[in-house]
Amino acid sequence: MNAFVEVEDVSLRYKAQTGNESTLAVEHLNLQVNQGDFIAVVGPSGCGKSTLMKLATGLHFPTSGAVRLDGKQVDGPVSIAGMAFQNPVMLPWRLTRDNVLLPMEVVNPHRQKIRRSRATYRQQADELLASVGLDGAGGQYPWQLSGGMQQRASLCRALIHDPQLLMLDEPFAALDAFTREELWCVIRDLHLQKQFTTILVTHDLREAVFLADTVYVMSARPGRIIVSRTVPIPRPRPIEVTYEKEFSDLTQELRGHIAEARS
Amino acid sequence: MNHTKSNGIQVDWVKLSPWLCTIGLFLFWEIVVRLFGIPYYILPAPSHIAYAIYEFWDALWWNSIQTLWTTLAGFGLAIVFGLLLGLFIGWDKRIYAGLYPLMIGFNSIPKIAVVPILVLWFGAGWLPAVLTAFLISFFPIVVNVATGLATIEPEMEDVLRALGAKKLDIMTKVGIPRSLPYFFGALKVAITLAFIGSVLSETIAANSGIGHMMLTAQANFEVPLVFACLIALAVEGIGMYALMAGLEQRMTGWAHRSGFNR
Questions:
Q1: Which domain holds residue A99?
Q2: Closest chain B residue to the Cα of A144, Cα to Cα
Q3: How far apart are CA A151 and CA A183, in angstroms?
Q4: Over the stretch A32-82, which tens digit does the pLDDT of each residue have?
């Protein structure tokens, strides 16, 4: 069976903003993610993790190699993906609910339907918001919400069009420790319920081990995968797992790989 | 029971302050002029100016209206063209990079140097005044609208582009609403500049308007009337500024409450 996301021997060279120099962001990158899997990519900063996100969603194209999504070569924007970032980037003039609905106004076939049946869509957005613990927040402006709540809303925006692939780029990095753990559980439950394929890019090893089936460690720039480690802890995992020996051993082991990658 | 003094009258010093300061300035001015016996043809006292306003009320009123409409006509043109050019420049990084230096260069030209050319082309009268008001006030509108468009958060653009959004989608859903606070902010600056432009042109080549009136009054050594004209301009300027500020508050209140672009 073919993997859902296939990154095959990909290299990407960025042209520098000034001068003729160019930097190699990733080199000979190989990655396979099966449908419904949750993988995490960790690595030293500047290792091309975010480049991986852009490659998989068709925002950048590889200089060599191939990226395939659901068996098809990625040659343009892929509307089956949803994205969330460290910065929730909500539009302050829209209600939270209408922020969540933003992808629906762009993506086919919803973009035609949403004009006629706005009320149905609104309800759908409110239900999704309620499922991440934001009951009644749809009618508020994003700047009336706390950082953690905005990030939840941003997750809803990434998921509103039922994407098959969810791309998370350090989505919880700016939150406090308690809120972060709450959101880990939110993501865990959403993934369990909807079974979308997820690629999580993060700096946080505990986050990676808690959420993912497989953790990939990337090398320093130019980035490639140097270690792939399956997490044997059965899912769904309760948050208490993070205090068990098996969990901390695994994070320790990964920390060692990162230290190697940095040197 | 609250602990304020129970005499029932609450003074809102913040609201009262601008009025007190304005009255205070005129009082100070009056006292200085009287104390040092400054002759009216150097610096007339406010009471003297008030009398001149009363005396020349009809002419002052008529010329103020004249200046107001030339200013507003120029300002209106500036809004239309500023908005269009701003959208055009902010649309694409390459256009932005290419036209920005040109805009700066154009804006660096003192507009007073352009008025004789306008007079040469269109003759003396209201048209050069309208065009000067337009030329001087459209620059901040263009720059602000273009900046609002050019500074869309890259993550937001990624989210939409990854979904297959076209440039037009991104502009109408994010760029244009996002640049509105910049646009309305620019209007406040532009309206005061528009007054400068129209009066400037009127003092050079016109047969009506406050600028023209000032020039005539000066030639006749009617110094209190010159000052009366200045007061009329200040009143018009404050009125229009307040209108633009109110409009900004009304249209883009979200930007103030959300700490947008702070």
A1: 90-163
A2: B258
A3: 9
A4: 899 999 999 988 777 777 788 888 888 888 888 888 888 888 888 877 888
